[in-house]
Amino acid sequence: MSGNNPKRGAIGIKDVAEQAGVSLGTVSNVLNRPDSVSERTRLRVLAVIERLGYVRSESARQLRAGHSRIIALLVLDIANPFFVEMARGAQRAARAAGLAVMVCNSAENPEEEADYFVMFAEQQVRGVLVTPTDSTASNLHAIRRRGIPFVFADRELPSTQACSVSVDDIAGGRMAVRHLLAAGHPRVVYVSGPPHLTQSRDRHAGALAALTEAGLPPGRLTVLEAGRFDVAAGRDAGARLLGMTDRPTAVFCANDLLALGVLQALYAAGVRVPEEVALVGYDDIDFAAAAAVPLSSVRQPAYRIGRTAAELLIEETDDGAGEGAAAHVHQKIVFQPELVVRASSLPGHRG
Ligand code: RIB
């Protein structure tokens, strides 16, 4: 049997065709349009492919198509479980379409983001899913110029030049602070992420809207700015909170990682949550429910955001037999957040 096998590395589509007794076109159909081939032929060709160890050349395919089978996903922080969920959703949609997702981390840094966009163009990715580092998203020029389609994930795009999938963060901030005010807290601290990120600003706007609705002045909300959206920045904000004279009894954090950092700082200082300070985070990552004091959080459908964004990008870049790209219309999808109340803000726990 091994005498029939051409040397590994030298096996081409011709060898497969020869040994299966079919034309080159039939082998190509088996690989690219399996539905157009009879079951018997398909199985015969696949058996030869398996026996010879034939692997099709991706670079040749890429040359023909003008793009690879890779979707780039550029997130703000690869260590944040929110983005891991988003990547899982994107990967699910990509796999169903025979594509793979390459996840990259801008680390909330516009320069790294700009470098990645250039690299994506060089790699001829099929399209880009991105959570941008700033509200103007000016770095996108690098891929826009080259005609690479992109979709905003976890960020609304003001214009209709591309698709976007996001969550109504103003509603999310509003529901968090409304909940704390309803529990009887007269003043609230907002631990914001970096102010240049839309997520920080929208959640802040929502928090202020809740005060207005309750007939309270904006001065009832104190903002503690965190340099990053991570646990260390949360611990730092927690230390500043502890240093406040006449400290407010409620804290809303712009994401769960910040809230977990604040929780650590309060715990280390012996300040009880929620008896002395009620705490609400944002995202509802798995660690929120698993925290020492289960964390109340504004839930975002991270998996759905990733999956939906990838589906829109796949539709837009479809070069297969389906309607795909021709029928594609840019969409702006905005999911609604949901408040999940746990022990960290339960009024019953206040002393
Ligand atoms: O990266 C910033 C934050 O925005 C994340 O934690 C998540 O909340 C996203 O929406």
Automatic annotation (TrEMBL):
<protein>
    <submittedName>
        <fullName>LacI family transcriptional regulator</fullName>
    </submittedName>
</protein>
<dbReference type="InterPro" id="IPR028082">
    <property type="entry name" value="Peripla_BP_I"/>
</dbReference>
<dbReference type="GO" id="GO:0000976">
    <property type="term" value="F:transcription cis-regulatory region binding"/>
</dbReference>
<keyword id="KW-0804">Transcription</keyword>
<dbReference type="Pfam" id="PF13377">
    <property type="entry name" value="Peripla_BP_3"/>
</dbReference>
<dbReference type="GO" id="GO:0003700">
    <property type="term" value="F:DNA-binding transcription factor activity"/>
</dbReference>
<dbReference type="InterPro" id="IPR010982">
    <property type="entry name" value="Lambda_DNA-bd_dom_sf"/>
</dbReference>
<keyword id="KW-0805">Transcription regulation</keyword>
<dbReference type="InterPro" id="IPR046335">
    <property type="entry name" value="LacI/GalR-like_sensor"/>
</dbReference>
<keyword id="KW-0238">DNA-binding</keyword>
<feature type="domain" description="HTH lacI-type">
    <location>
        <begin position="11"/>
        <end position="65"/>
    </location>
</feature>
<dbReference type="InterPro" id="IPR000843">
    <property type="entry name" value="HTH_LacI"/>
</dbReference>
<dbReference type="Pfam" id="PF00356">
    <property type="entry name" value="LacI"/>
</dbReference>
